[in-house]
Write a structure and sequence with these properties.
With about 130 residues, this protein is mainly α. Helix content is about 85%, strand content about 0%. The chain contains five helices and no strands.
């Protein structure tokens, strides 16, 4: 996609892009802003004015997203890694609960078996008296 088409796309979809970026953590938005500044310096050195114009639009959108996020107290959207970790923690927790429950059942069965064995021995002892 040419830079001119990217500029047009950024302008046409500005609200959508700002809303998506507003869900990102502020730390990530700050990182994006720093990256855009570095890219702008490189574009200036190369006298690439179309790129500078696109980067300026991106910079303004990132700033707008940060302001919108702060004004509306939008919580950070968890990253895919955080979601995966949460899923793994849930699975581990449920597995531990199941293991604990199986251990309880196993202990109960062992107690029942011990009691049954004891009753049988008592019955045999009583029968041996006859």
């Amino acid at each position: 996609m040419s830079i001119i088409l990217r500029i047009k796309d950024c302008i046409d979809n500005q609200e959508k892009y700002v809303a998506v970026m507003a869900a990102l953590p502020d730390k990530e938005l700050a990182k994006k802003l720093d990256l855009v500044h570095i890219q702008m310096e490189i574009a200036e050195q190369n006298k690439n004015f179309e790129a500078i114009e696109l980067l300026e639009i991106w910079r303004l959108q990132i700033i707008e997203a940060r302001i919108y996020k702060a004004d509306n107290k939008i919580p950070d959207q968890p990253s895919e890694i955080e979601l995966a970790i949460a899923d793994i923690e849930t699975i581990i927790s449920k597995t531990e609960e199941r293991v604990d429950r199986l251990n309880e059942i196993s202990a109960n069965l062992q107690n029942i078996k011990t009691k049954s064995t004891k009753k049988l021995e008592d019955n045999e002892n009583q029968l041996s008296l006859f």
